[in-house]
From TrEMBL, chain A:
Keywords: Membrane, Transmembrane, Transmembrane helix. The keyword Membrane applies. The chain crosses the membrane at residues 80-97, 109-131. It comes from Tahibacter soli. This is Uncharacterized protein.
From TrEMBL, chain B:
It comes from Tahibacter soli. Keywords: DNA-binding, Sigma factor, Transcription, Transcription regulation. Pfam families: Sigma70_r2, Sigma70_r4_2. Belongs to the sigma-70 factor family. ECF subfamily. Residues 22-87 form the RNA polymerase sigma-70 region domain. Transmembrane segments: none annotated. GO terms for molecular function: DNA binding; sigma factor activity. This is Sigma-70 family RNA polymerase sigma factor. It comes from the Bacteria. PANTHER family: RNA POLYMERASE ECF-TYPE SIGMA FACTO, RNA POLYMERASE SIGMA FACTOR HI_1459-RELATED. Residues 123-175 form the RNA polymerase sigma factor 70 region 4 type domain. InterPro entries: RNA_pol_sigma-70-like, RNA_pol_sigma-70_dom, RNA_pol_sigma70_r2, RNA_pol_sigma70_r4_t2, RNA_pol_sigma_r2, RNA_pol_sigma_r3/r4-like, WH-like_DNA-bd_sf. GO terms for biological process: DNA-templated transcription initiation.
C-alpha cells in the first residue's frame, strides 16, 4: 500500500471518528454503518460524567481555606515588616545616640529645616494613601 | 469586558464570593483532569483543593495569554503529574506499546456472550476506558466530555497538537476494536 493511500485511509478514519463525536453531540438518531455505530458508542461512553464527583460544598470549602491561608500569610508578612522596621529604627536610634551628636551638630540649620519639610510631605502623602485605601476597602 | 478578566479582577480585588465563583466555574474540569490521571477519589479531592489554592496564590501571574480555563487546567495537570511522580507511577504507556490489546484488560471474568445486552456492552466499554493509561484517558475526557479543542488541550498538557491528535485517533480506534466482538 502506498504512503498516500495509507494517509488517506487514516484521514478517512479520523473523519469517521469526528463524525461519530459530532452525531453524539447533536443527539442524532442512530444510523450509518456498523463502524460509525461503534465509534458513536465510544463517543457516548466518553461523554458520560466522571463519577464519583466533587462534594457539593467543594467551592465554598476551598474558598474559605484560600481566605484563611491568605490571611495567615498576610499576618506573617505584616509582623515580619513591623519587626524589620523596629529593628532598623532601634539600630538607627542606637547609632544616633552613640555617634550622631557631632554629625548632627555639623549639619546647617537650614538643611535640617528642608529635611524636616521633606519628611513631613512624605509622611502626609503616605498617610493620605493609606487612608484612601482603607476607605476604598 | 472579557469574562476571564472580570473574574480575575474580582478575585484580585478580594470581592466577596469571587473566588468561590471561580472555583465553581472550573471545578469540573479540574476534577476530570486529576481523577482521570490519579483515579483515586480521596486523593483527587485533596489534589483539586491543592490546585485551586495554587491558583489563588499565583493568580497575579496569570497574563491572559491563554484562556483562564486552560491556565487552571494546566495547574491541575501539573499537580496531578507531581503526585504521580511522587508515587513513581507512569502516566503514559511505554513507547512502542501502542498495540496492546485492550481486550486483555477486560477479559478476566468478563463474559463476551453477556455483552450483547446494552448494559453489559456499556460496562465493557467503560472497563476498557478505565484500562487505558492515564494520559490517554485524560486526553479523551478533555476532548469528548469537556469539549476542549485540541489547541487548548495542548496548552493544558504541554503536548504538541499532533501528538494529542495521534493519541486520540489511536485510542478511539482501539476502543472501537474492543467492540468488534460485541453487538452495537
Amino acid at each position: 500500500m502506498s504512503t498516500e493511500s495509507r494517509e488517506d485511509e487514516l484521514e478517512r478514519e479520523w473523519a469517521l471518528q469526528e463524525r461519530a463525536l459530532d452525531a453524539e453531540r447533536r443527539c442524532e438518531a442512530p444510523g450509518g454503518d456498523a463502524r460509525l455505530q461503534r465509534y458513536r458508542a465510544v463517543a457516548r461512553a466518553l461523554r458520560e460524567p466522571v463519577v464519583p464527583s466533587l462534594p457539593m460544598d467543594f467551592a465554598r470549602v476551598v474558598a474559605r481555606r484560600a481566605r484563611e491561608d491568605a490571611a495567615r500569610a498576610g499576618r506573617f508578612e505584616q509582623r515580619f515588616a513591623v519587626a524589620l522596621v523596629a529593628l532598623l529604627g532601634g539600630a538607627g536610634l542606637f547609632f544616633l545616640l552613640r555617634d550622631g551628636g557631632a554629625a548632627l551638630a555639623s549639619v546647617p540649620v537650614a538643611t535640617n529645616a528642608w529635611v524636616l519639610a521633606l519628611a513631613a510631605c512624605v509622611g502626609v502623602s503616605t498617610l493620605a494613601q493609606w487612608w484612601g485605601a482603607r476607605r476604598y476597602r | 469586558m472579557n469574562p476571564d478578566r472580570e473574574m480575575v479582577d474580582a478575585v484580585l480585588a478580594d470581592a466577596p464570593g469571587a473566588f468561590e465563583r471561580l472555583v465553581r466555574a472550573h471545578q469540573d474540569l479540574c476534577w476530570h483532569i486529576i481523577y482521570r490521571i490519579v483515579r483515586h477519589p480521596e486523593d483527587t479531592r485533596d489534589l483539586c483543593q491543592e490546585a485551586f489554592l495554587r491558583v489563588h496564590q499565583h493568580l497575579r501571574q496569570y497574563r491572559y495569554e491563554s484562556k483562564l480555563k486552560s491556565w487552571i487546567g494546566r495547574v491541575a495537570y501539573t499537580v496531578a503529574l507531581r503526585h504521580m511522580e511522587r508515587l513513581r507511577l507512569p502516566i503514559a504507556e511505554p513507547a512502542g506499546n501502542d498495540e496492546v490489546d485492550l481486550l486483555d484488560a477486560v477479559d478476566d471474568g468478563f463474559d463476551l456472550e453477556a455483552a450483547w445486552a446494552d448494559e453489559e456492552r456499556h460496562r465493557y466499554l467503560h472497563t476498557a476506558i478505565d484500562a487505558l493509561p492515564p494520559l490517554q484517558r485524560t486526553l479523551l475526557t478533555l476532548y469528548h466530555l469537556d469539549e476542549l479543542p485540541i489547541p487548548e488541550i495542548a496548552q493544558i498538557t504541554g503536548l504538541a497538537a499532533g501528538t494529542i491528535k495521534s493519541h486520540l485517533f489511536r485510542t478511539r480506534a482501539r476502543l472501537r476494536e474492543t467492540l468488534e466482538g460485541v453487538a452495537v
